[in-house]
Amino acid sequence: MAEGERQAPPDSSEDAPAATQNFIIPKKEIHTVPDMGKWKRSQAYADYIGFILTLNEGVKGKKLTFEYTVSEEAESLVATVVPTHLAAAVPEVAVYLKESVGNSTRIDYGTGHEAAFAAFLCCLCKIGVLRVDDQIAIVFKVFNRYLEVMRKLQKTYRMEPAGSQGVWGLDDFQFLPFIWGSSQLIDHPYLEPRHFVDEKAVNENHKDYMFLECILFITEMKTGPFAEHSNQLWNISAVPSWSKVNQGLIRMYKAECLEKFPVIQHFKFGSLLPIHPVTSS
User: Which stretches of sequence are listed as region Disordered (predicted)?
Assistant: First the structure.
């Protein structure tokens, strides 16, 4: 990642809110296109993109089989969702989880739902349930499991892509695993961007690398030449290095997802990811 795009982690356990904090049910704040300015200046935007970039840095050069540790707080999350003393945060945090699995009426799913799950994980970090030390486990264990569940739902229910740009979009459903997956492959001894359109290379390495797992899923779900059904990815395969792919995908994510009104109009804001302007530290 370029130095200019690195940001400090959004929070650590020392910054976690006190149990007396007034948590609120998140709600929509972006109602018109001009409201997008509020979003881009908000504390929520700063914390969200900071979280994404922190995880991006954490998984750089590591395989999905990398041995990572999980804090005791994260273990308690598995058993009890959140500790009892933070029970007041549950209604606020749960909103993002509910928003992350697609729309049950339209039977669709897209990058806005994916962003809701990332926001859910960000909130868990902000209340101290997950720590920055857990960043590798957040991507490789929790988010990767989320991907597995969503792929099963996509296959079972043939979910419609929400806001898909067709062949001109990166992918019908996901974006973050391409960012973090390209970070995993930075400085790989032999896998280069050109190899992800090589069926043999994908089949032999997909279990270790999130990016290649995404490519495998695409080829299972779509027919025809790769260059036709996934033109953007085909073009990316010509980029000379994974670091340049990673930097380009971060810029593309900001432009095509975080700065698009049709996506952000559905994002919800509360006390943990607030709409108020970012405060200088």
Answer: 1-21
